[in-house]
Amino acid sequence: MSQTANRVFIVDDDERIRSALARLLRVSGYCVECFESSEALLNKADLTSAPACLVLDLQMPGMTGLEVQSKLNQLLPIVFLTGHGDVSSCADAMKAGALDFLVKPVCESLLLAAIDRALKRACIECATRSQRAEIEERVSHLTRREREVMVLVLRGRLNKQVASELGAAEKTIKIHRARVMEKMKARSIVELVRLAEKAGVYAGDEA
């Protein structure tokens, strides 16, 4: 695992539990930040600069674990660790995307294994977001006409068909198409399709 992929945020309103978890994780080589509430996490933590995971209590004063999960589920993997677990809460958390749902007191090996899985997923998700942002940046540099040409190319149109639909000369379309391929850094139509899909541009979009 990357040396930067060892950040763990702990959110628990019980100071003794926070301290015990922090000691265990730091001894195990993780970089740990503790917060007494979900609000403190949201206000103070740097959630996006590097891969990280969240060890989250379920029942706390203020915002509950499930409530903060709804805000952060797309940003980092979540491992619930609670002394108030029930089947319904577990089902809700897992359905909403939690990676694990553990009950206190937890076996150290189970917790460490869950955190390891969460950080591995965090690395994958971080890389995916970074790649998507890079491809979206390429799309943003396309002119309106180049984007129109790209959408029609994604639909499988030939140059002469694109020219007909856009009311342009085929020679002009060839130039636009070449610029699309260059700006998107695509070496083939297959690669262009893959890149466009990752950026959320589909053949069904308006040309």
Main traits of this protein?
alpha/beta; 9 helices; five-stranded parallel sheet; Rossmann fold; 2 domains; 207 residues
- Which structural class fits the helix and strand makeup? alpha/beta
* Rg result: 23 Å
| General form | elongated
Mean pLDDT, to the nearest integer, reads 87
Task: Give a short overview.
This is Response regulator protein TodT. This protein has 207 residues and is an alpha/beta fold. It is built from nine helices and five strands.
Descriptive overview:
The modification 4-aspartylphosphate is found at residue 57. Keywords: DNA-binding, Phosphoprotein, Transcription, Transcription regulation. The chain is of the alpha/beta class and 207 residues long. Helix content is 55%, strand content 12%. The protein has nine helices and five strands, in the order βαβαβαβαβααααα. The protein has a five-stranded parallel sheet, sandwiched between helices. The protein is elongated and about 75 Å long.
SSE inventory with pairings:
Blueprint: E1 7-11, H1 15-27, E2 31-35, H2 38-44, E3 52-56, H3 65-72, E4 78-82, H4 87-95, E5 100-103, H5 108-140, H6 144-154, H7 159-166, H8 170-184, H9 189-198
Parallel strand pairs: 1-2, 1-3, 3-4, 4-5
Helix pairs in contact: 6-8, 7-8
